[in-house]
Protease PrsW (Polyangium jinanense), 394 residues
Amino acid sequence: MLALQILIGLLALAAPVALYVGFASRETLRPSSPRSVVATFALGMLACIPAELCERALTGLLGPRKVGVGIDLAALVYAYLVAAPLEEALKVAATTPAFRLRVGQHRPIDAIAYATAAALGFMTLKSALFLIGQPFSLIAPARTALTTLTATCLATWWGFALGRDKQGRMGGGWFNGAWVCAAGGNAVAHHVAFARGPAALLATLPILAFAAGIAWLAFRDVLQRGTDKPKIEAREREHEPKKARLLPLAPPSLRAMREALKRSERPISFFWIGLGMLVTTGVITAMLVGAVLLGRRLGFEFAAIDRDASNAIAPLLLLASAALLSFLFAGWIVARASATRSVLEPAISALLAIGGAIVLLGLAAPVAVVIALACAPLAFGLACLGAWLGLSDA
């Protein structure tokens, strides 16, 4: 049993590293200095040591306090305002030597490589320290593997901001915003994975999916910066119709997302924002009711979700899938009905609907707020995707 536990733990630690090596070894993504990436990975592991010592000391000082049902106030404050910012700051510190020593030699893709290597090294040692002394189970390795992948993808955000800065500054609006979002995402993922039951572990999947999607767009944006843009734009203008229009199915990229959010031939309609919020809420309600009816026909026991029982995974997946897909359908409906050529109004509607849902959950079931925060980024992304697919060509 001990040998099996060690084997599963090693697989959980090695799988994210193997995925990273396989991804970074591709010709277009290969860093200019692999040795610097390896050194940054080692520095990320070293940065985990002071973080663990500091966090364990703070954990001994903070006594758990309960507010409401199942809410640990000290744990929430510690996770969101102490542990996550501290860990993300140490990851940036581990990235600094390679980035500063190779000023003028690295490419934008190298900054992302340094950031992800530091995060991967940090989380690998953190996961190993967590698995040591844990009883045999498949849940603990799954928790470490998912949080490691999530943290690595989230580090891509501020790595992208660092690479796109022409002056190579570790600061500025883009970098600070990406860093705060990465720290917040890691806090939510860690809290859901480790402070909740096994069924709640599924809530880390939307965070991972959203973080990986933004990371993929960041990689595409960085790679496209090296192309000959004037020739491409001239070629596109030659084949473009006389009446310019936004192609709803254009290849996704960060630049295309920014254009879709900004492009509008008319002022923002607050009427469609309010109506879109109501439509989104209605679609969510209808989808959840349909999921409950379908689950009952299939024999699912939805009460098992509250008990965090082993048979709670299937009904939880059904409800989560229905809720997330409802944002995709609602975004498409709002975009088609409003005949808009921008996803800005459907995006604002989705944000208002998500905010309202989180407030209602906070009043009715405070424990579910963390799960809602975990699914919120992916829900917003699906709403924007649905609106993008429904953009009017007229």
